[in-house]
Amino acid sequence: MRFRNNAAAVRVKIEKELFMTKILVVDDDKDQLKILSGFLKKKGFDPVTAQNGVKALEEFKKNSFSILLTDLKMPEMDGEKLISEINRINPIVKKIMITAYADVETTVNVMKAGADDLIEKPVNLEKLLEKLKKLESEYFMDEESEAIMSEIEIQNLPVKIIGKSTEIKEAILRAGRVASKNWTVLLKGETGTGKELFAKLIHLLSDRKDFSFVEINCGAIPENLFESELFGHAKGAFTGADKDKKGLVEIADKGTLFLDEIGEMPLLMQAKLLRFLQEGKFQKVGDTETRYSDVRIIAATNRDLTAMIKENLFREDLFYRLSVLDIEIPPLRQRKEDIHLLTDFFLKKYGQSNFSFDDEALNSLIKYNFKGNVRELEHIVQKAIAFSRTNIISKQDLPPEVRFFREDDSSILKEKVSVLEKEMIITALEKNGWNQTKAAKSLGISERVLRYKMQGYSISKD
Prior knowledge:
It is built from 20 helices and 16 strands. Helix 5 packs across helix 18 and helix 14 (339-349) packs across helix 16. Helices cover 48% and strands 13% of the residues. The protein has a five-stranded parallel sheet, sandwiched between helices. The longest helix is centred in the N-terminal third of the chain and has 30 residues, at 125-154.
């Protein structure tokens, strides 16, 4: 990744080298602290220990950590309070709670406090290692994506990507990594996810940023005009061609050409585009002179190109040429934790920063399916501003399709709780040799409830 200002990139590099495995371990039990610390050292981590939340917070303010591993029940400051405080200081630090009280209510409270994961006592060290490796990877993905977003702010780039979810951060990270490469990029995603925004981001972070960013919607050009639009035409090439015209590949020379909705490109033009991608050569319509253009191609589609290849609607060789680097832009339903950030952004965008959505309205938006993705959410915010009777937007101010949406679509918190609950049940069954009576007792639930949950989660000994 090449930045005009390298501060963000350098910061990430330094942090990876120095703090990649630095973990703050907090427990009031000295023996537990010693076991955890010794295990982490053997596995290549750099643990720093604290015996209570207050000391841990002091340590956190003095040093940089990528992961917090804390007990729940501690004197002076418990794990929930500690996680809340650390979240306030640095929300991208990953947090695991250790508890001997792993019931559903505790799990919900821990997740509300901001924990990323939970592990039950006595700690299974191999499971802990699994969780740490996963969170470590997520932490550095967050760091790198934050560095890219910082660079956007530093350079005052005219793009704004809103979101803190893992899914959107991963897309930002991939965009930043491919920006310095000179190869073609294929952006995949549903309508309204922001593919054009990502194309501009890649261009602005690349060495081509000082040259043109030219875009064309392949679905909006009549087939008989496509070649002229892309490669230009010579005077007299056809009726109405009263002067020479530059094509988009020539206009975008040394810059970036964004081919939106590439799946709509006619087959004949696909062959001509392929030749251009292979050789950098083209001819204007009605001209015999071979010309060259040094342009980077970024393509985007909301269609399944592999299915189109099977139906002979898209060239397989062009597909592989376009998808040298590919990025999947996530739909809004897969990153619902970003909805409140997006609604705030759109309220400010339309000059209504004094407006806000109440909890019931936000919950309705979170449950909604958003087939039109971020673009649909923007239109919903516009309608809500127009029809709201006060500056507090309620559920009644939302369009009927949102108000009366009935699909059972759980929130991110509920999804996390379900995953952890399933893991707790499997752990309890394994500890008790799959004896359901003993497992239910250890979980504090009835055997009937345990069987019901096992059926719901498809849990069986096999």
